[in-house]
Structures are given as C-alpha cells and as structure tokens.
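RECORD TYPE: inverse folding
INPUT: structure tokens
STRUCTURE:
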C-alpha cells in the first residue's frame, strides 16, 4: 500500500489532534506528515515526520510560490492549508499541475465572498437561508458613530469586528456601563463607546468594521463534512460551563446546515457559527476549514479530518452515522519538544 505525503502549513496547535486522526484512519492508509510554521517550537511540528521553519514573506504571491516550491520539492500528495488559504485556492490549477491535491474549496470566488463578512451577509439575505444580525459597515470614526447610534436607536446592544478577519480577532462588545476598575484591570471583550471612538478617530485609517447587533443567546458551532452539495455529517456543538463541550442533537441547526450545503456547495470540511436571539438562530460566520474545536465533534464517531482527506483523494464517502447528545471535557497534555539529544 502506498504512503501519501500530506502537508499542514502554519496551522493552529489543534492540528496536532487532526494529524493523529488522519494517521489512525479506519482504512489503514499510511501518511507521511509534513508541517511548517514560523515558530520553531509550535506544538504541531512535534507530531510531524518532517518539519520546516517557514520564511518571512511579504506578499500573497510570494507565499503561494513558496507553497508550490515546497510541494514540488517534497513530492507532496495532499496539502491542507490554513494560512493564506484564499490565495492558495486561487492558484489551485498550479498545484494540480505538479500533482498536489489541495484541501480547499474549489470555488475561490465563494471563499472570497465568505471571507468578506458583509458581502456574505448580503448574499445570505438574498438567498433567505439564515437570519442575519442587523449590521452596518464603517470606514471612518464618524461612520462608526453614525452606525452605532442607528443600532442603539433600534434598541440593540452593539458589537463590532473587522469585515475581514479570523476567529475572535478584533471583536468587541460596546458596554457603556463597564466598571472603570474592570476596564483598567481585567482582560475583557467589552469596551465603552467613547474609548472606541477616540481610538478610531486618532488612528484615522483602519480596516473596515462591521458594526452590528450583539446576540445574547447561546452560540453554536456546526462542524460539517460535505461534497458536491451533499451534507455527509453535521455536529452542532456548544460550550457548557468552564471546559464542558456539548454535542447537541439540534435538528433545526442540522437542517440549516443541509440548506446551506445545497445552496453554496462548500466542499470537504467547514464550520458554521450561529447564535440564538429570542429563539431564532442568526448567522455569525462561516469558517471554510477545520475549526479549532473540531476534535470535540469527532467524539460523535465521525473522523472529520480523515474523511475530508478521503474525499480529496477521490474516494466515495457515505452519509455518516453521527452520535449526538454527548457531554465532554478536556485536560492538558504534556508534549516534549526536545530532550537534549
């Protein structure tokens, strides 16, 4: 049986788990794992058969060329990108020409729309799949003030985040009743309006922001496996108290994932984030990749990382038998990065 060379570039630390899951696959397929990261002590690299430190590159084109060179040099069969996934998707044909399959959606235009949150919200509104939070965009301090006041006049609590960004970077909740001592002493996502406005006014130029209603209800991540418009598995997941994670049999959210998959035809693995408001699930964002908490969703009995790779290899994957209503937690694990040898 042949061994496939698979490469993870600049991933989160949870890729350590995903590498394990791909290696321990039910089909007994062998993988040689390559990993790269600018941090030589990144824990993912400790779980790779071959690792390399990524160079500092300034532009998307330079990074894509680095990836092409790496794949060609090491005869990489499968490439699982996180960093610069969109420019890599735009260069998909170049990777195919050198014999490398890339775990990224084949429609780069769709990925670009998803990355631009306000454009994607408008698209979802048109298609009527998700309820969307009330939102505006702001490119200046004055626009921010105007949109903030509009939402406040609608009786909504306000939050904001960059139009283009990953995870929780730049997300803040505007709270004008914040305890001054907590504001100074405690790490918090909350900030009073006057601080935001002063900062934006002083900066002058800043990345475009989405100014939107803050949703008070429960937040869910729905990890999905799909191909060619067919949803093969969906696991609605939410946080409990502390370190508790719950895989919930929420048929409303599974139906939403099914509708989204049929409409947008996002392939392989993706994650839908929603938050409830007055009993209604509203879309936060789509992550067109393996999510940070995907390893919890694999407790459902679905090996998401491996099955995505299996689809990439051209194999047939059937709709999965998903076990839900699972409550789980986690412990830290010590990883030796070097031992003096």
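DESIGNED SEQUENCE:
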């Amino acid at each position: 049986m042949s061994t496939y060379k698979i490469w993870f570039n600049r991933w989160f630390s949870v890729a350590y788990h995903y590498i394990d899951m791909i290696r321990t696959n039910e089909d007994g397929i062998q993988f040689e794992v390559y990993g790269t990261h600018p941090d030589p002590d990144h824990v993912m690299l400790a779980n790779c058969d071959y690792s390399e430190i990524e160079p500092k590159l300034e532009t998307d084109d330079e990074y894509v060329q680095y990836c092409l060179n790496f794949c060609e040099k090491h005869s990489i069969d499968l490439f699982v990108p996180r960093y610069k996934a969109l420019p890599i998707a735009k260069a998909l044909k170049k990777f195919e020409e050198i014999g490398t399959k890339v775990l990224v959606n084949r429609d780069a235009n769709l990925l670009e729309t998803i990355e631009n949150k306000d454009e994607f919200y408008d698209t979802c509104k048109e298609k009527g799949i998700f309820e969307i939070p009330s939102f505006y965009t702001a490119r200046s301090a004055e626009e921010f003030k105007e949109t903030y006041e509009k939402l406040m006049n609608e009786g909504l609590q306000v939050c904001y985040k960059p139009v283009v960004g990953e995870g929780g970077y730049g997300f803040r909740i505007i709270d004008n009743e914040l305890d001054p001592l907590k504001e100074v002493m405690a790490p918090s996502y909350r900030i009073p309006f006057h601080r935001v406005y002063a900062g934006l006014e002083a900066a002058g130029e800043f990345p475009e922001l989405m100014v939107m209603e803050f949703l008070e209800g429960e937040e869910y991540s729905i990890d999905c496996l799909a191909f060619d418009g067919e949803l093969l598995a969906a696991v609605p997941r939410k946080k409990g108290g502390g370190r508790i994670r719950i895989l919930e049999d929420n048929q409303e959210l599974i139906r939403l994932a099914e509708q989204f998959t049929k409409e947008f035809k996002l392939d392989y693995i993706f994650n839908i984030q929603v938050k409830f408001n007055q009993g209604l699930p509203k879309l936060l964002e789509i992550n067109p990749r393996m999510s940070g908490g995907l390893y919890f969703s694999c407790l459902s009995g679905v090996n998401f990382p491996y099955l995505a790779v299996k689809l990439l290899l051209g194999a047939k994957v059937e709709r999965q038998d998903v076990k839900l209503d699972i409550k789980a937690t986690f412990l830290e694990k010590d990883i030796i990065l070097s031992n003096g040898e």
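NOTES: The longest strand covers residues 230-239.
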